[in-house]
Amino acid sequence: MCKRVLAAFILCCAAAARAEQIGFEIITLDWPDGYQARVDEDRIHMAGPNGEQVTVLQFNLDDTVTPEEAATKTDTLRHFAETEMPKSASEQGATVVRDLKKTDFDERHTLYSMISQRSENEARQYLIEYFLVGVRGGAYFSIVGNGDAMPAIATFDPVFAAVQWKE
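-> structure tokens emitted (167 positions)
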């Protein structure tokens, strides 16, 4: 199922050589122009016009999963967001710019985000993580870019705040 969803994603993006509206099984996002997309095994990679590197991991449950099983599995995704995302900055030697932020769209859909910055050889690099978790799965986005995180935050926060849920 994951391969089918990834193939649908890449077809929607490759035709225009950029991702304007990207869709997954549970979400659709209005993505900034100028991103080139490719698929590797279980993840999507996008390269941005300013050198940003975006990696997307998708977690979907098939239709045979009961609501109780789905709740257990999405609780695991939420636990990952709340415990593992905060560790990523320190593991990479980065400074947290924005602590883990949890935004509940409703009782079924949540956005987790976290932003960190690091300097290496006098070059600044940022990592922005977004994790959308719904009833039947989630999508984790890692955005790495050069420079200051603040302009990137101004670009990406509105994209994720306006997510369209399909479940």
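Strands lie at 21-23, 27-30, 36-40, 43-47, 53-60, 95-104, 110-120, 123-133, 137-146, 164-165.
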